[in-house]
Structures are given as C-alpha cells and as structure tokens.
Design a protein that fits this description.
mainly alpha; three-stranded antiparallel β-sheet; 13 helices; Beta-AFase-like_GH127_cat; about 375 residues; 6-hairpin_glycosidase_sf; Beta-L-arabinofuranosidase domain-containing protein; Glycosyltransferase
C-alpha cells in the first residue's frame, strides 16, 4: 500500500525548477551580503523589513550547498562565497573547538553541540574543495570537541543550546552524520564510532511505530517535520556510511510514515503527533524540502524508485509558493518558514536554512531526472 501511495504521481520536476534554484541561490547571496561579515543572515523578517544577524550554525551547512551549486551552475562566484563563509567560521570558532549558539547578535556566547555539528559539514567541504589546511584543522578541532562531550551511552547532554527548550535531542543524529562524514574522509575511526554510538542511543528513543521521543525544539509531543527530518537523515546517512542496515531500515520506516501524511498539494503538516497524525494546519517549508532529500536518498540507496513521487510533490509545492517577482529582495527567491506565512514556525520570516535545503532538494531532483 505504501509503495502505491508513494508512486501515484509523476516525479518530473516543474519547468521552472532551474529558475527556482537560481532564485534561491541569489536570495542566499543577498542574505550573505546583508551580514557584512562573510556569514549568512539567519532570516529576513517581513514584518520588520529587516535582516537578522549572521548565523554560524546554518552558514556552516550552506557552505557545501554553495560549492555544489558552483559546479552545478558553472558560476564560480558561489565557490568564492562558500570559501568566505568557511573562513569566517574559522575566524569565530571558539578556543575549545566548538561553535557558538544563536546568531552573532545573541547576548550569550556559549558552545553548543548541534551548531558545531552543522558547521563541521562546511569545514569538511571547504577543505575538500580547497585543500586549505586551515579548514581541516577547524574540522578536527570541532570533531574532537564533539567526541569529548559525548556521554557514555552515545547521547549528548552537555552544551545544549540555551535557545532550545530541551537539553536532550534525538535530532542530534544530524551531528552524528557530520562526524561520520569527517571520520570517513579523514580515515579517523573515533569519529565514525561516536556517530554510530549516537544513532544507537537515538534508536532507544524510538517507539514501536517508529516515532522518536525528544525530537523537537519546543514541543516533543508534536515535533516539527524539520526536526523529524534532521533525525531521519542523520540515522540514514550514518547507516549508509557505516554500512549498518538496521539504521537504514529505521530511517526508511520513519520516512514512510511521514510520506503517508503528505497532502494532495505535496505539502506536509508542519507538526506530527506520536501516531504520525497531522498536528498543524500550516506546513513547515523547510521540512518539505528536507523530506524530499531523504526520499531521493532512499531511492538512490535502495534502488526503489517508489520513493521519488513523494519527493517530486514536496518540491513542486515549495516551487509553487516561491515568490520570484517581489520587489523586496528579502522575499524574492527566498522560502518562508511556514506556509501560510503566519504559520507556527518562523512566523513572517524567510530563514536561510529553508532556502538551503530547497536548493539541495532541487539539485538532487534535477540531477536524478
């Protein structure tokens, strides 16, 4: 039944997919320029007509997206932008190797696990692309700090973000994903072992129906598709890097449950409850893009093309709400936090991570098809 549901429509990307991709890249460029420092502004607030401060966490994982888009588009401006982001991240890396919580205008400067993991993606990509030893050094320092901070059972409980409601999070499997990538690239088994250990712990938090406890920024009873996708992708990718079929199967189970909640227009409910039922009327636009990436990754990993239609519908929905003609450069080409814009996630804001994951999803779809 799941396979029939997933494959009931075409996966062909809309005709304007390349235009949407370029517009999102241009929006992220404006977000970087707005910061004035090399990092990327966290979001644009429509109500205030104002860009937020630069955000180390998400700038970190925009870096590989821009390197990839430079190759995809042939426009090497994006390669230079990615290099500047990575250099800025090294400039502001804390002495212990961690990455600070929040944006650069936050009042508290403390290292946090999740943000460090996300910037790790950027430093690894920058080192692989440029061979600049500075980026490798930053990546190693960050990875060593993460391993040292891990609890014996594989969870991370110390150095939680002061801007999140919960100290223990299963979506930290996305940190494990970064550690696994670095461990594989550098031939360092300690990093991969730590990644596997974290996913093993996360699976102790999984209910019989595949739903994860402790998996939201604020409301663990109704997690965002954004954090569900963080956790799912982390479990999947660590499973693929470590050749652990149990992890891949667990991620596929979660991904199927989310797919069954997909609306006819391709959007997902912004929140899902513990029975995988819709828990909001609005959609989390970032979550749509992230789940599309996961469905494409599962199709590639398993050879099962029935994952692709759900991805195509989610991407098609996001394309349908992208404003390509707005005079306001903070809106044109960006992706809102929620749809409608006044929904429950990043209300009235265009976050940089929504555009980042949208670009990743579009490039995967265009390359696949």
């Amino acid at each position: 039944m799941v396979a029939r549901f997933l494959s009931r429509r075409s996966t062909r990307p809309p005709a304007d997919a390349r235009g949407g991709l370029q517009a999102a890249a241009e929006w992220l460029s404006r977000a970087q320029d707005a910061s004035g420092c090399g990092g990327v502004s966290a979001h644009y607030d429509v109500a205030k007509c104002q860009w937020a401060g630069a955000y180390p966490e998400t700038t970190g994982y925009i870096i590989p997206t821009f390197f990839r888009y430079a190759d995809f588009s042939g426009n090497h401006e994006y390669r230079e932008r990615a290099r500047r982001m990575a250099a800025w991240e090294s400039d502001i890396q804390l002495r212990d190797g961690g990455v600070r919580a929040g944006t650069m205008d936050a009042s508290r400067i403390v290292p946090t696990i999740f943000n460090t993991g996300q910037v790790l993606f950027g430093w690894l990509s920058a080192w692989q692309q440029t061979q600049d030893a500075r980026f490798r050094d930053s990546a190693v320092r960050a990875a060593d700090w993460l391993v040292a901070a891990q609890d014996p059972d594989g969870a991370w409980r110390s150095f939680a973000s002061p801007f999140a409601a919960h100290a223990v999070n299963t979506y930290n499997t996305r940190v494990a994903f970064a550690l696994a990538k670095v461990g594989h690239a550098l031939g360092e088994p300690r990093y991969l072992d730590a990644a596997v250990h974290n996913v093993q712990w996360a699976l102790t938090q999984m209910r019989a129906n595949g739903w994860l406890e402790n998996n939201d920024l604020e409301d663990n009873e109704r997690p965002l598709t954004h954090t569900i996708a963080y956790a799912t992708r982390g479990i999947l990718e660590v499973g693929l890097i470590a050749a652990n079929g149990t992890f891949v199967d667990a991620a596929a189970r979660m991904a199927r449950s989310v797919a069954l909640s997909q609306r006819r227009d391709g959007a997902l409910p912004g929140r899902l409850d513990s029975a995988w039922r819709p828990a909001s009327r609005w959609t989390c636009v970032t979550g749509n893009a992230q789940m599309a990436i996961i469905w494409h990754r599962l199709a590639a990993a398993t050879g099962d093309a029935s994952w692709k239609p759900a991805a195509g519908r989610a991407i098609g929905f996001n394309l349908s709400i992208q404003n390509l003609t707005a005079v306001d450069g903070g809106v044109r080409g960006g992706m809102p936090g929620s749809h409608p814009l006044k929904g429950g996630y990043m209300k009235n804001r265009y976050p940089n991570w929504a555009a980042k994951f949208f670009m990743d999803a579009l490039m995967l779809q265009l390359e696949t098809d």
